[in-house]
Amino acid sequence: MTQMTGAKMVVEALKEQGVDTVFGYPGGAVLPIYDEIFQQNEIRHILVRHEQGAVHAAEGYARSTGKPGVVLVTSGPGATNAVTGITDALMDSIPIVCLTGQVPTFMIGSDAFQEADTVGITRPCTKMNWLVKETDELASTIHEAFHIATSGRPGPVVIDIPKDVQFATGEYKAKPKVSQSYYQPRVKGDAEMITALVAAMEEAERPIFYTGGGVINSGTGASQLLRELVEATGFPITSTLMGLGAYPASGEKWLGMLGMHGLYEANLAMHGCDLMICIGARFDDRITGRIADFSPNSRKAHIDIDPSSINKVIHADFPIIGDVGHVLEDMLRIWKSRGRKTRSDAVKRWWGQIEDWKKIRCLDYKPSEKTIKPQYALERLEALTKNHDRYICTEVGQHQMWAAQFLGFDDPNRWMTSGGLGTMGYGTPASIGVQVAHPDALVINVAGEASWLMNMQEMGTAVQYRLPVKQFILNNERLGMVRQWQELLHGERYSHSWSEALPDFVKLAEAFGAKGFCVSDPADLDDAIMEMLAYDGPVIFDCLVEKHENCFPMIPSGKAHNEMLLGEAETQGAIETGGAVLV
Amino acid sequence: MSPLNIEKGSSSHSAYDLRSHMSDVVETHTLAILVANEAGVLARVIGLFSGRGYNIESLTVAEVDHAGHRSRITIVTSGTPQVIQQIKMQLERMVPVHEVSDLTVEGPHVSRELALIKVEAKDESRVESLRIAEIFRANVVDSTLESFIFEMTGTPEKIDAFADLMRPLGDVRMARTGVAAMARGL
C-alpha cells in the first residue's frame, strides 16, 4: 500500500513504464504534475513552443526509437492544440501517450476557465481515452494506457486528469508483471492460411512484396525477417511511404516506393503481378489509384494485425490477421520446411520485364546550371550525407515525395514523415523529437518553405536544448503540390498557392540563435551542404529552387497504376472531370 | 452486380452464399454488441457510425450485467455486405467492445420492440381503435375522453402496421424503444 498524490503517481507510473523523455507545455491544470517533474531527475522534460509540436516531437521520438512517445499538456487550449498531432499519430499508427490536465471534477461542465471536453473531442482521434475521476484509479489507467498504445495496431491514447485528482492522495498500483488487460490482440497468424500463401508463393510467376509501416511498427526483428524472406525467394519488393527502410534501398530486389508519386517500375509491377503479398500496409487511396483497375490479374495476400484493415478496400484472397514479425517468421519456416521452392525461371522472366520498365528512368529530370532543381538538391544531400548516422524527417508536399524518391533508407526507423494525415508542420517538431532520442546523430528535416512556417516556433526548442537539427528547406516560394494540382486540374489558375511575404530565413535563423544558409546557385550547393553538416548546432538551410518544377511520376487521381504520367509532355488533359473530385 | 436479386432489407439464409463480396445490394443486419459499461462507450460506438458514414436504423442500450460491468447495445444497421463486414470489424477492434454478434447471419433470432402509441380517439373511432388494439394484443395504459395510449411489443413491422391502421382514426403519436434482439437457443 503506497499512498501518494495523483501528481506523484503520474511521474512514478511514467518511470515504471521506462519513460525517459516527456514533451510538453505547462499550464494551470497540470501545475501539480509539473511540480513533481521539477523534483526529480530521471525523466527529462522538453519544453516545446506549441502543443501540436509536442505531439509531433513525441511521434519523432517514437518512430525513431520504437518506444512510445509521451506528451504532457494542460486543459482546454493545451488539449485542443494537441488534437492535430494526435490525429496524425492515429492515422500513422504511432504509439503516443498524451496526458492532459483538466479543470477540477467539481467544475467540469460549468464552462470553467480553460475547460474543454477533451475526452469528447479526442474520442474519434484516439485509440482509447479516459477521464480519470478517482486518484486510486490513476496509476492503473496509465499502465493500461501504455499497454493499449503499444499493443496490437499502435496508436495514440489520451488520459485526461482533473486538477483535484492530481492533488488528492490515493493508492499507487504498480505496473502488473503480466498485463491484466482484456485487450490482447492476436499476434500469431492462422497457420493454414499462411501455408496456403506459401503454396501460392511456390507457384507464383510474377510475385511482388508490397510492404508498409506495419513492418516498421512490428520492430527491427520484422525488418530482418522481411530481408531474409526477400533474399531467399528472390521476389521483387516495393513499399509505401510509411514502410521505407524496412527493406534497404540499396538491396538488389528493391523497386522503390509505389503509389501516386511512386516509381514507374514499382507501380507497373503491382499492376502486372500474379501474386501480391501485402505486409503491414492498408491499400490506401494513394497506393491503389482507381480501385476497379487495381492489379486486376493477381491473387492478393494481406497480412495485418488490424482485422478491420483486411477487405476494407481490396478483397484479400489470403487474409492473415497477425503481427508482421510473427507471420513472417512462420512464412519463412513453412516455406523452408516445404523445400524452399519458387518458380525461379518464371520469376527470372518477371525480373526481365521489370528491368525493361526500369529503363524508362522515371525519376529523370531536366538538369539546370542556372537554378537548383529540387531533385538535384536532394541528390546532393543524399550523396553528402549517405555515410552519416542519419535520420530524415519531412514536411508535407512535393519535397516530401522527392525526398522519398531521391533519398535511400537502408534501415527502419530512419524516416519520419506524416503519411496518412499529411500534416504540414510535422517535420520541424518531429526532427526535434528524433534528435532528443539520438543526440549524436545527423537529423535533417527536408521541408518546403510553406510547411516549414507552420511550426517554425519549434526552432526555439531546438536552440534551447542545443539540438543540432538541420532544417533543409526547398524554397520555391509556392505551395508546390497545390500549385501542381492547380496546373493539372484547375486551368493553371493559381489560387492562393504562393506567398509574397516570406521571411528572410537567414535572419530568421539568427533571430532564433541558430545558423542560417541561403543558396541559389547550383555551383555553391555542395559547399553549403558541407558547411551545414560541419556546423554544430541547429541550422535553417534556405535552398532556393526552381519555382515551377512538378513532381513526377504521377498517377493522376482516378487513374490506374498503368496510366502514370512521366513528365510535363503528358500532362495535358490528364485528369478528367471524374478524377477532379478526388483528393 | 449481384447474381441474386435480393431485396433491400432481406438477407440470404441459404447455405450456398452466392452473394458477391463487393455486391452493391443493401442489406439490413441486427448487431448485438457487448461492451464494457464505462463512461463514453455509447458515444464511442455511435461516433464510429457517424464518423465513417454508416447507418443506424435503430439503437437500444442498457446494462445487462451489473457485477461484470457489461452493457448490451443492439443496433439495426444497413449497408452492402462489404460495409456490414467493415462495421463489424471496426466495432470489434474498439478497446471497450468485448463481443460483436451479427444476429442476422448467425441464425434464427428473436427481435422485439416496445412502443407506446397515443391515438386521438373520439366518438365512434374509440370502439374501432379498441378493436384493432385487441387484434394486435396492445394494452391500454392510459385513457382520456379524447385519446388512448396503447402499449405493444412486437417486431418493428407489427408496430408499423398497427400505427398505419390507427392513423385514419385520428392523430397518432409514438414513442418506440428500438429493437432488442437475441439469438434463439443456447
Please provide a written account of the structure.
The complex is a heterodimer of chains A (about 575) and B (about 190). By secondary structure, chain A is α/β, with parallel strands linked by helices. Chain A folds into three domains: about 1-170, Rossmann fold; about 190-360, Rossmann fold (3-Layer(aba) Sandwich); about 375-550, 3-Layer(aba) Sandwich (Rossmann fold), CATH 3.40.50. In chain A, strands 3-2-4-5-7-6 form a six-stranded parallel sheet. A six-stranded parallel sheet of chain A has the order 11-10-9-12-13-14, sandwiched between helices. In chain A, α1 (about 5-15) packs across α2 (about 30-40) and α11 packs antiparallel against α14 (about 345-360). The radius of gyration of chain A is 24 Å and the shape is globular. Chain A starts with a strand and ends with a helix. Chain B is α+β, with helices and mostly antiparallel strands and about 190 residues long. Chain B has two domains: about 25-105, ACT domain (Alpha-Beta Plaits); about 110-185, Alpha-Beta Plaits. Chain B contains five helices and nine strands. In chain B, the strands form two sheets. In chain B, strands 5, 6, 7, 8 and 9 form a five-stranded antiparallel sheet that branches. Chain B is elongated. At the A-B interface, β6 of A face α1 and α2 of B.
Number of helices of chain B: 5
Shape of chain A: globular
Q: How much of the polypeptide of chain A forms β-strand, as a percent range?
A: 15-25%
How many domains comprise the coordinates of chain A?
3
Strand content of chain B: 35-45%
Write down the overall mean pLDDT of chain B. Answer: 88
Global shape of chain B: elongated
Tell me the layout of helices and strands.
The complex is a heterodimer of chains A (583) and B (186).
Chain A: E1 2-5, H1 6-16, E2 21-24, H2 31-38, E3 44-47, H3 51-65, E4 69-73, H4 77-91, E5 96-102, H5 118-122, E6 128-131, H6 138-150, E7 156-162, H7 163-167, E8 169-172, H8 191-203, E9 207-211, H9 213-217, H10 220-233, E10 237-239, E11 254-257, H11 264-272, E12 275-279, H12 285-288, E13 299-304, E14 318-321, H13 324-337, H14 344-358, H15 374-385, E15 390-394, H16 398-406, E16 415-416, H17 427-437, E17 442-448, H18 449-454, H19 459-464, E18 470-475, H20 480-489, H21 505-512, E19 515-519, H22 525-534, E20 539-544, H23 577-580
Parallel strand pairs in A: 2-3, 2-4, 4-5, 5-7, 6-7, 9-10, 9-12, 10-11, 12-13, 13-14, 15-16, 15-17, 17-18, 18-20, 19-20
Antiparallel strand pairs in A: 1-8
Helix pairs in contact in A: 1-2, 1-6, 3-4, 3-17, 8-13, 10-13, 11-14, 15-16, 15-22
Chain B: E1 27-36, H1 41-51, E2 58-65, E3 70-79, H2 81-92, E4 97-102, H3 103-106, E5 109-120, H4 124-135, E6 139-143, E7 147-154, H5 156-166, E8 172-176, E9 180-183
Antiparallel strand pairs in B: 1-3, 1-4, 2-3, 5-7, 5-8, 5-9, 6-7
